[in-house]
Amino acid sequence: MRIVAIIVGAALAMALAGPAAAKDVQVKMLNKGANGTMVFEPALVKIAPGDTVTFVAADKGHNAEVISSMMPAGAAPFKGKMSQTFTVKFSKPGVYGYKCLPHYGLGMVGAVIVGSSQANAAQAKAVSHPGKAKQKFASILK
Fold first, then answer.
1. Cα–Cα dist 81/96, whole Å
2. 31 and which of 21, 59, 137, 138 could share a cystine (Cβ 3.0–4.6 Å)?
3. Which domain holds residue 89?
4. pTM score, two decimals?
5. Does residue 10 fall inside a structural domain?
6. Order of all β-strands in the sheet with 86-89
7. Domain count along the chain
8. Per-residue pLDDT tens for 95-137?
């Protein structure tokens, strides 16, 4: 009888606890980082649906905004203000490519991969980019 009570109590505690808390990953917008100048660190983030990414304005003069041709169909676009930290919740699985608008051609780009479904990965890899952004995305999305 005591074992049954323990099992019922554990099941009830798990049910009341609810789903696991969503994770937040920080991405810094930097003038200079471990991988060169004008970078997001880390440049590639892998998260689960429902998790968030906080883009941290570590250095001024940067923003982060999704590249519309590099996001899953039906996903909500995002665009941060210049020199401001902001958080994006990613609900739809897939690949999201993003850029710093003023430093896009200098290769200040990154990607968020949400979940295990990468239905739009081929589409994201096929997008054309200016300057160093092309090389950076080839490296990030290999």
1. 18
2. 59
3. 21-140
4. 0.85
5. no
6. 36-41, 24-33, 52-56, 86-89
7. 1
8. 999 999 999 999 999 999 999 978 899 999 999 999 999 999 9
